[in-house]
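ARCHIVE ENTRY
Sequence with per-residue tokens
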Amino acid sequence: REVHCVILLTPTGPLLRSVRGCTYVNQIAVEQKMLLDGDMIAIGPYRLEVCWPLLPSPDPTPLVQGRSKAA
């Protein structure tokens, strides 16, 4: 079987990457796209609706005594 696209879970949400050609998201051909809740993915005769109600995570830098480690 051939892989058409992959969906990666990133800290900012699901990311679709096309492997062979373009994949249609909301009827627009894309090679890569951050997916949002309600997006429609078309793969051949199949239609998939993204159900991702979570908001992107905040800055993952942990807090140390009220300040981020980067500070």
About this structure: The radius of gyration is 16 Å. Strands lie at 5-10, 13-18, 23-25, 28-30, 32-34, 40-43, 46-49, 63-64, 67-68. The chain has no helices and nine strands. The first strand starts at residue 5 and ends at 10.
